[in-house]
Amino acid sequence: MIQINNLTFQYPTKEHVFKFPNIHLKEQENLLVLGKSGVGKTTLLHILAGLLQPTQGTVKIDDVSIHSLSHQKLDAFRGQNIGLVFQSNHAVNSLTVLENLQARLFFSKQPVDPKKIDVLLEELGLIQLKKHYINELSQGQLQRLAIALSVIHNPKIILADEPTSSLDDDNCKVVIELLKKKAEQTNANLVVITHDQRVKSLFSNTLTL
Amino acid sequence: MRIWKISLQNIKSKKGYTLVSIFTLALSSMLLLGIQQLKKTFQYQVNNNIEKIDMVVGAKGSPLQLVLSSVLHMDNPTGNILYNDAKKIGESRLIKTAIPISYGDNYKGYKIVGTTKEFASLYNAVLDKGREVNKAMEVVLGHDIAKNLELELGDTFLSSHGLLENDLDVHSEYLTVVGIYKQTNKVIDRLIITDLESIWEVHHHEKEEHHHDDGEHYHKTEHHSEKEITSLLVTFKSPTGLLTMPKRINKNTNMQAALPKYELDKLYEYTGVGFTIISVIAYVIFLVSSLIIFISIYKMIKEQRFYLALFRTYGASNLQLLQIIAYETFTIVSIAFLLGIAMAKGGLYFMFSILNANYQQTRIQDLAITDYLELGSLVFTVVVLSVLLAIYPIVKMNISTTLSHEK
To answer: Which residues form the ABC3 transporter permease C-terminal domain (chain B) (predicted)?
Structure first.
């Protein structure tokens, strides 16, 4: 459950003030945020993830007003409740697929359950690549690993920033479907932010900035 | 998943950088340690062996050579002096002890020194086994010789002429081991001690072989006037002797008197400049490798910025990020430092094994544990500072910005 109210943001060195519409998402409700570059898509996503402090307004995830948490508590909250998918650079090159997932669970202080990891990798078609390093993976495989990293810890909200921009049409659809499926399985809200019009038809709930 | 595993994987993923870092740091550690050890060995060698010898009297020539050959046993003697002349000097009331030494032979490169019973007391050498020399052709071995050549009481051997090991010029009389000294860590550990008679006898036999049947006593009386020694090691009763005797000997006799402390201080001054220069070079190298360490760490952290930011989004604390970097760096630095120690030791032993082929006298003085700790803590201070300096931007980093500016 996500509630965004009266949110504004201004970068310290810039005059422009971003104003964001109020957003209310019920449990398991998904949202696609569309917009051209420069309208503050990534800024909104980073505010939702608690990576940026808004100038005004509140973000509540499961009734927790995340920006009133202390630094450390916010870090811990983010680690446990939020799953992030980035456009690229989703994983650490010096670690294997398995080790990346282990690190994900370790840092959010969750038990590193090998069976859980195997089930997820199997589901995402990455199980044979378990012991492979990141640079041995293709773009599509990388994006699936990014999904695995964003859901392995059963987050309450999955935030995806341009998850499809570097993918071809087939992979684009596969990735969005997987994200939606995993969100449903873990009872999480899914928020996808993109300028990729291909994705539009795959969501019922759309917001254009 | 453990933090050190992430660090190890990071190291593994950039082997080239790791190797270069290890090598430069190991090299500078090696130089710093090596120079310290060399200096210590040299100082020890000098100070420890001249302690009780105030003056050396020998044949005219270089005073430094006389000291090096008769006190440190590192050089060829300047020549011989007449035993009777030396004895006259020894009779002076300013002198506490005057110990004649005579040498010119070796066994497997170890110098055979003919002297009196007081010689051992110069080095506080006490018997480990057996007894002192009672008659000619008996020897007592220094600790290292007995150990290195595996000689025991009752063993016999033939000496060869000169100070270098050779098979061409071997004397025909057997020397018998009657005693072995305890270890002193001084030059006597590497000397073979016998009485003056043995040296004279061996050499008279060469000149007048037909006298052999008449025995040693005959030689003693017959050739007493011609008997020669290499030098006389003198200790004074008071500093007055030190001031007057050398001058008198140098002026009035055809012998020369040299003061070991004075000569070796002079030598030390010359070599000291060398040591200082090498030390400075070593520190410059150390400074450069510190800089390399810092730049490497800084670069490494900058390259890993994105991953460190990623870990932060996973919920990692700044302390955990610091741990990742610290484990990684300290692994590299520890390996490098240990390698440096090994290289310093290996290098010095190699160097000394070449040098000792000529003069089996020098032993490497091991550095005290505090010396290692000193350099170790210096290295680790540099590393800690580098890590802290380099990690500071990471602690302060804006995760949002870092993640937005993707590589």
So the answer is: 280-398
